[in-house]
Amino acid sequence: MAVVYRAVQDPLGRTVAIKALKTSAAYEENVATRFEREAKSLANLQHENIIHVYDYHQERGAMFIVMEYVQGIDLYDLLDKSGRLPYDVAAIIAMQVARALDYVHYRGIVHRDIKPANVMLSRSGGVKVMDFGIARDTSFGDLTEAGTGIGTPAYMSPEQVLGDKLDASSDIFSLGVVLYQMVTGKKPFVEDESKSAMHKIRLEKHAGARTLNPDIPRELDRIIDRCLEKQPRDRWRSAQHMVMALERFLAKHVEMNHHARLVLFLRAQNVITDLEAEEYLNPAALGAGGSVLAQPNMQARYVVRTGLAAHGIMLGVLMLMIGLIHLAPLSDTPTTHIAAAGRAAGKGTLRVDASPWASIAVDGRPIGVTPLARPIELVEGQHAVSLQHDWYVPIQRTVTISATGEPAHIAIDFCRDGTLAAGKQLPADACPPKAAP
Q: Is the entire prediction scored with pTM above 0.90?
């Protein structure tokens, strides 16, 4: 419907983007009205993750929006170039988009067309949401007739496919599709010979992101799954709740400024040069040699830290065995020494089930977040187990591990057994009602 030009705005001398409505579209009443509403809606929005509008102009039937020019690459082209993104980069982008959505949803606007082509990454590491051409703004009447689906099919929510009246949860579903595509390189709902993408969106469960990319952490997989729930009430209650979930995830996986992480990735994809990267990055974020190339890959660092922790645990067990052997009474026979060493080396397993989920620590050592892929292997003896959930007071348990007996098992239902933490308000959908007997 429109063409975008790069221009210089006089007398300020700043580079801007001018979106001009095509003459053929300008004569269609709904199209022209939507174009004007896009300008008015964007003019009232001031957010770092939304394209800024500077001016709106009409001349001899032509219509123009003068807006911020972002030098960079849109997410569509970036995915076309790289296939899929590192999961930490994808989470950073999704969090910035979710922040923009939280801002516009609070102001009564539903974007209705969240997709990679409408997400811009600047060369300095910023993320901008653009193209509010079909957004629904409660400040204006709705131009979409009831029962009419409007948007991009592969990114529509189930209710959008049906032409129902949309709210903020529709944008959350679309963002979930984008996040899924970023970490897997594929869309969750793809048309085939027998079924359309819109049919699958309405009626079929998507394949888990981890089945396509096993490197995706389970926590991020759960965030994606909640976005893609068929029923709006089962998704994140708001874009802000999704932002908070992504912030918790990124705190564990990204140890640097988020803009800097995106700059490094854009440099790795040759979107920007070494010199541009060094211009944008804070010197503190550079490597010891002052070069951006010295910055290590964050996912590689995460793997290395995990490996070092595992080696540390093995070394601790080995030292414990050696200590027990040397501390045994000198009168013991060689057979007794062997038995003592065997008991020290004995291991058993612990299985933990927690509803809805819990972060597990054993003897003060973080283990992971339920559900775990396999039981926890521990040396025999007593162990202190801590189960933590964001909304509840932590629950402590002591278990006895036996190398020869039955595996230990802890089952916790926070909704039934937990005590709400001070100052915490339990979301309405956190604990589903129990089925009637």
A: no
What are the residues whose beta carbons fall under 8 Å from the beta carbon of 207, sequence distance 6 or more? Answer: 188
As a whole number, mean pLDDT of residues 271-297 equals 63
List, for residues 71-104, the tens digit of each pLDDT value: 999 999 999 999 999 999 999 999 999 999 999 9
DSSP 421: P
Whether residue 31 contacts residue 21, with contact meaning beta carbons closer than 8 Å, is answered with yes
Protein fold of 346-432: Immunoglobulin-like (2.60.40)
b or e along 166-205 (b: 16 or more beta carbons within 10 Å of the residue's beta carbon)?
A: bebbbbbbbbbbbbbbbbbeebbbeeeeeeebbebbbeee
| CB count in 10 Å sphere of residue 66 | 17
* Residue 147 and residue 161 in contact, taking contact as beta carbons nearer than 8 Å: no
> Residue 340: is its pLDDT beyond 90?
no
Per residue in 101-115, pLDDT (tens digit) is: 999 999 999 999 999
Q: Which residues are catalytic?
A: 113
Give the pLDDT band (50/70/90) at residue 292: very low
- Give the integer Cα–Cα distance in Å for 26 and 1: 9
What is the amino acid identity at position 26? A
Cα–Cα distance between 409 and 302 in angstroms, integer?
29
Domain ranges of the chain: 2-68, 72-254, 296-345, 346-432
CATH code for residues 2-68: 3.30.200.20
Distances (CA, A) of 410 to 375, 391, 413, 434: 11, 20, 10, 21
CATH among 3.40.50.880, 1.10.3720.10, 1.10.510.10, 3.10.20.600 for 72-254: 1.10.510.10
